[in-house]
Every structure is written in C-alpha cells, then in structure tokens.
Amino acid sequence: MQVFYATQFVLPLPAGHRFPMAKYQLLRDRLADELPAVQLRQALPATDGELALAHSPEYIQAISDGTVDPVILREIGFPWSPAMAERARRSVGATIAACRAAFNEGVAGNIAGGTHHASADRGGGFCVFNDAAVASRLMQAEQLRRGRRLRVAVIDLDVHQGNGTARIFRGDDSVFTLSLHGQKNFPFRKEASDLDVDLPDGCGDDEYLHALEGALGELERRFDPGLVIYLAGADPHEGDRLGRLKLTWDGLEARDRRVFEWAWERGLPLAFAMAGGYGKRMEDTVQAQVNTFGVAAQYWQRWQNRRR
Ligand SMILES: [Zn+2]
C-alpha cells in the first residue's frame, strides 16, 4: 500500500506551541516498523497550477512569498517560514499522489493532510491549503482527459467541521462533502456541507457509529461517487485534548472499518489522510493513526487479491 509523506519538512514552531508536529515522524517510524504492506513514498510539492484548482492565485502567492495577511496567519496558527510553505505544498502533493495510487490499487494514504479548515483564499486551524479539495478537482480534471466525469465523496470524520471544504464546494454538485463533527467544537461558525452531522459533547461509540451509518446511507441515496477521500481524524478519541467526544480505541477502529468496508463493497477507490489528532498523550494519537493504517492495509490487500 502506497503511503505518501512530507515528514522531512518539519515546521519550525516556537517552544510550547500546541501543535504536535512530532507525531508525523513517529507515525512514519511506526508504519515502517510494524506494517510491512506499507510502501513509504516521498510526496512531490503541489504546483501553483494544481493549488489554483481550489485556491485563489493571490493566496497561493502570499503563502509562497511570506506576505500573507497577519490576521489569516494568526488563524492558521503557524508562523510563516519557507519550510511552512513547502510543507503545505507537499502535504497537498501527498493527497494527490494517494488519489492517483488509489485509482490503481484501491487504497492509498497520506501520513499528513486532511487540512479541511482551509478555504479558497484563507487558511485556519493549522490548515494552509485544502489537500482534499485540490486533489478532488485535479482527479476530476485527469479523469476528464480520459472522457470520464468523476464525482468525489469527501468523508470527513475529523471531530472538527470541514468548513473550508464545505465552502470550496458550495454549489458544486460534483463533489459531496460529508462532515461528522462535534457540534460545540471549533469552528464555531459552521459552513453548510452537503451533509453535516452534529454530535453532542461526550458522544460515545454506539451513538457515533449509529450516526455514521445513517450518514453513509444518506450519502448513498443522494450521490454516486467514483472516488472517496477519507479524512480519518484521530481527534474523536476519548484521550484527545480538543475532541470533546468519547470514542474508545475499538470505536475508532470500527469507524475506520465501516468507511473502508463501505467503499470496498461499492468498488470505490479510497484515498485517506490523517487530519487532526491532539492526544493528551501524543502516542495515543499516533496509535489511533497506526490503527487506521492497519485497517487500510487489510482493504488494500483485498483489492490486490481480487485482481489476481
Ligand atoms: Zn480536528
């Protein structure tokens, strides 16, 4: 299973910054040690032209040359540096590469990405560019070259609403945005996705899985995708500092399995990205993500078995 990374570009963050940047390298190390099916591949940076499929040229330029509005930079929550701009491009590149690999092999992943708070002309909430949005539009363009109209379902199970993705695809009926999120969590002003499911504080496994089942059913009634991009946020876990939900390890894994199973049953290629995870213990976030890759590898293996 091909997994794309940009972990060599570490954002220089001030001491005590609350973003757990080290989790990406930890995850990469654990995947290399524990999951032999995973082939780690370095991501290429997304180009200006690719980014412009979902972002304004002015915003892309401002991020590239460090002239981004200080208000927007504060909302992103990272100081600007050349490494910050490069890493943001590579993270989008990793989701693009994962989507292409998913068309060939059924399932592929990005060790980072899932930066769903970024909209066309501004970032926010640790998100600079919106990888799922850029990759959706690029895959549509690439498939159109082959005479196929591609419809993409973005299944966003990060605990925070995918407000940037919702904004970008508002009025675009070729991409279905589904977001299951904590009702009282950031962002406090929600955007309208194609399907939003608000969950109460303290929501546990059963309630969550029931809500997911209903959402997948509604997605299926309303939309017929040819590709799934799955944002497998680790932050619904009960050990998360920011999540406010109470999913156990088993609940999170059942969530992942349900999404992979749903795509598999329908023969849909699936690319996944990590999105958020702010465990009180960073190892817990990494464990949740390793678990996601473990489930993903099982479904990747099914695709390979079916082709033989
Ligand atoms: Zn999140």
From TrEMBL:
Gene3D superfamilies membership: Histone deacetylase domain
Keyword field contains DNA repair: no
UniProt keywords, alphabetically: Hydrolase
Molecular function via GO: histone deacetylase activity; hydrolase activity
Domain Histone deacetylase: start-end pairs: 18-281
Stated family: Belongs to the histone deacetylase family.
PANTHER family: HISTONE DEACETYLASE 12, HISTONE DEACETYLASE HDAC1-RELATED
The protein's name: Histone deacetylase
Organism name: Ramlibacter humi
